[in-house]
Write a structure and sequence with these properties.
9 helices; about 200 residues; about 60% helix; single chain; extended; five-stranded antiparallel β-sheet
């Protein structure tokens, strides 16, 4: 998807409707700045307001995502192409999130071990030694919570029993025992409790 083209299309449709950025922003319950960022291609409208935005502009979601009005004879073909592009974009974003998780956790664990080693071998007062050890664990906690959020949000989990894919909520991921990226959870489809494998696409 070309965000610059989409932004220009939003601006053109807005002007066709005789609306200012402020008026469109008010209808969408967003700020003028948000509309400006849409129209300059810096941001995309949130999916939660896309239908309302299209209704206000007199276009379809497919028109919006393609940055132009789609002729009916080409609608199905372009809709399928748009869905494929969105899927590929999600897979790429999920892959980057999971890579970021690995890097973030590696740095955090390395920092924790470094602080523990320093506390063990440096000639320092006991209170400072205790502080270093406490800090080494405290800095790891935010990393764990963010990593679990990434695990929950990126990709899907696949049940080893029935093969269905699904996205658990945060608490299900938080409390699930895990081995690598596989987590022991109850499948919402078959009801069996087993290790669910993390996958990026539903076809894996």
């Amino acid at each position: 998807m070309d965000q610059i083209q989409i932004g220009r299309f939003i601006a053109a449709c807005r002007k066709e409707k005789g609306m200012t950025q402020a008026q469109l922003a008010e209808k969408m319950s967003v700020s003028d700045r948000a509309v400006s960022k849409w129209e300059t291609g810096k941001n995309m409208p949130d999916s939660s307001i896309m239908l309302d935005l299209c209704s206000e502009l007199g276009i379809t979601v497919n028109d919006l995502l393609n940055g132009r009005r789609i002729a009916m004879e080409n609608y199905k073909e372009i809709a399928e192409k748009t869905m494929l592009e969105m899927r590929e974009s999600k897979e790429q974003n999920d892959r980057m999130l999971l890579q970021t998780e690995v890097l973030m956790c590696s740095v955090s664990v390395a920092l924790m071990l470094t602080l523990i080693v320093l506390a063990a071998y440096l000639e320092i007062p006991d209170w400072l030694r205790g502080l270093l050890i406490a800090v080494s664990f405290l800095q790891l906690m935010p990393c764990i919570f963010v990593a679990l959020k990434i695990e929950q949000k990126a990709g899907y989990y696949k049940c080893r029993k029935c093969g269905e894919t699904w996205v658990p909520n945060y608490s299900q991921v938080f409390f699930a025992p895990h081995v690598g990226r596989s987590r022991k959870m109850t499948c919402p489809h078959c009801g069996k409790r087993c290790y669910h494998k993390k996958i990026l696409t539903k076809d894996e």
